[in-house]
Amino acid sequence: MADVKTAAAKPATAHGSSAGKPKNSSNFLANFLVVVACIVAGIVVWKFVLGSDANFLDAEKMKAKNPFGLMFQGGFVVPILLATLFTLLCFVVERALTIFKSKGKMDAGEFVRKVQYHLANKNVDAAISECDKQSGSVGNVMRSGLTKYKEMTNNSELDGTQKSINIQKEIEEATALELPMLEKNLVFLSTISSCATLLGLFGTVLGMIRSFQSMNTSGAPDAAALAGGISEALINTALGISTSFIAIIAYNFFTTIIDGITYGIDESGFTLTQSFAANYK
After folding, report:
1. Is residue 45 part of a domain?
2. 237 with 204: CB under 8 angstroms?
3. pTM above 0.85, yes or no
4. How many domains is the chain built from?
5. Can you tell me the distance from the alpha carbon of 132 to that of 125, in angstroms, rounded to the nearest whole number?
């Protein structure tokens, strides 16, 4: 979040906007490389780990010895599901590191109360020091607002209403820079929560087709092919549902934390404008 702090400390300007374009492209490239690496990892794990001879009772890999062998028998959809799962885990870790750091070292409500206390005593510098101690998104936004707050207290050209508007605009600009960092990459979690289930169902359908084909043979049905098709269907269903379950839980968990941070940012902005209106009429 070091880059978040830097961004929040400055107003959004045309230069800052143009500087954000290379950053967006680098983020896209990094995400693309993560997805590609996860696809490669999924294929490698399926072929060399799950498909190891040690996981089967026969050289043809028709009789699984353990759950790893059963997963390998799920067919070509399994490495796709594994790649989806690895991608999910990567972005869950990335979001966890970013969002937990954005929460800061101090509860937002306690932090706002301390700032209110210092502002009531007209000690803006002490309030700014509290922002450094909080070191989260709420603290970043509050620090930007307090910097403008301090500037407006020494401004003799504008009236009280104009000063309050300037403080509010500074808070809005800082908020506009903070929130995208919190919500970045959550789209991967929401997409995987839906697509993983569909991929699992796709594998299930393929497995059932294989099972019915074995029953359509002349004479007695091929019991081994029938069991293999059913096994393929169930394995893909299990992988898809479990991946989707993790994605839904992670997405809801992170959005709940972000909602709390957003509420703290809104509360901090309201605190600054109300304090300025009360102390510098």
Report:
1. no
2. yes
3. no
4. 1
5. 11
